[in-house]
Design goal:
With 183 residues, the protein is an alpha/beta fold. Helix content is 27%, strand content 26%. It has five helices and seven strands; from the N terminus they run H-E-H-E-H-E-H-E-H-E-E-E. It has a seven-stranded mixed sheet, sandwiched between helices. The chain starts with 25 loop residues before the first helix and ends with a strand.
Length: 183
């Protein structure tokens, strides 16, 4: 796992040990950031369930103005700190070591965000609660986008269609990125 492009290009990143964190592969990360390439420079990026911090770090490396990374795992928080230091991007990032959804209130002070990325543990099924919190705290800019990484076969009925609309789905071998905008 490494930073794909930008100021920290090719810097290897650490990942927390064990099965709790499931880092996005470099190939999928590269595909996602190619889709987002015009939206990244100068954006405010929120990385929920950050794990190693690689998505927020990639956004910063590619020119995001600021990134907020949230994870509650003790080891994940230490790995994120180490990765931010290694890439020399700590000054552009805020790390919140709290559980979601409580951390969303704290993230409000750094927002609103242009891009919100969430990759919750697939078994957690917390997307509906998180989307509700994003709306409640006004975390998404008017033209902003939410990207959810989820299992390929995940039922998307958790999306409240009175608030959000799916603008795109990018499917991979075993997972997918669901792009959501507010109506």
């Amino acid at each position: 796992m490494r930073v794909i492009a930008g100021t920290a290009r090719s810097v290897p990143l650490q990942a927390p040990e064990g099965q709790e964190t499931r880092p996005t592969t470099d190939r999928i990360k590269e595909t996602l950031f190619n889709i987002l390439q015009m939206q990244i420079p100068g954006c405010r990026f929120l990385d929920l369930y950050a794990g190693s911090g690689q998505m927020g770090i990639e956004a910063l490396s590619r020119g995001a103005h600021h990134a907020v990374l949230i994870d509650s795992g003790k080891e994940a928080v230490e790995v994120i700190k180490a990765n931010l230091n290694k890439t020399k991007l700590s000054d552009k990032a805020t790390l919140i070591a709290r559980q979601i959804p409580a951390a969303l209130f704290q993230a409000k002070s750094e927002g609103p965000y242009d891009i919100i990325f969430m990759d919750p543990p697939y078994s957690l099924h917390s997307e509906a609660e998180v989307l509700k919190g994003i709306k409640e705290y006004g975390l998404l800019n008017n033209d902003g986008i939410i990207i959810i990484e989820t299992a390929k076969d995940r039922d998307l009925s958790f999306i409240d269609e009175s608030i959000y609309e799916v603008s795109r789905i990018k499917t991979y071998k075993t997972n997918q990125h669901v792009f959501i905008k507010e109506k």
